[in-house]
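Handoff note, outgoing to incoming analyst
You'll be picking up this chain. Sequence as last confirmed:
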Amino acid sequence: MKFFLLTGALASAAPFCEEDSEVQIEPLVFSSTPNPVVTLTAEQKQAFCAAAATAAPRSRSCRVLGFTGWRACTGSDACEVFRGDRDIDAVLLEAVRGELSQPVLAHIKEETTRLLSSNDLCEEDSAEPSNEAASCDTMVVGPDDPSQVHYDVANDDDGCFVTKQRYNNCYNYGNDIVTNGFAQPGRRDFDGGDGLCSHSARPCVPNTCEDVKNGAIADGLTWVGTELPTDLPAEGHYISLHIWPDSNFHWLRMDADMKFSHKPGGTPVKNVDNDGNRITDPSQQDFSPWSQHCGYMHTVPSKVAAGPDAQVQV
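Most recent structure output, in case you need it:
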């Protein structure tokens, strides 16, 4: 599937405004669970096309977490991201209103207002997988050696966080395990065992620090505490848990350099916070609206993939 940033009004709107086309809208907002996708009604499509036909190009959003735009798709390979246009925002916000909670809607409204006058300057994501022959269609498990855990998206897990970007979330990346299924704490996605919920549940547990922590423990992770780790563990690595109250969770991974990186939902892996700063202390940096820092957990990829009840020989 190809994606394009809105750069020209009439050319960008054309694929969506053909008479028989069906337009699906996805607000790019969540990290741990897939974003809702809604199909525009005929009336909404007409309003969207009218707004898109006269929309002016806008610079991209440098926000790492939270709402970064509207992905509009028609057919299997025609998608574009729209942002920073008042009329488009009004139409699409109304279209997704029934799919999102009030806190999420309030955040999107606040961010769309900011983007109307923003001039965000940041680099484009350009990582390409280094091993094009690698198979990313089955589970890929990262290293247990903490010195080998690096912010290196092209090589990490054979580049599968690039190749399968849309299908792996923050919990996949935090554990360094590719499953292509938006892994959920407590669902036992990594080993296929019986978890705290069905394998179709998203999320598996309520979005609170205690519930998500306990879900991760059920997967085989261990609780570390609220103090920032100052050394690498003997095996595996640390991850940091954050909560958007009553809405969503997010995980960050400590790499070998003691700095953190993360993967916001189905978007590219990042090593900066919402202010564009390298991440050295997750409890003190901007990951809004994931405003609650819960603490740190420890994961050993091979053991988590084998399941918490498995006898793993080291």
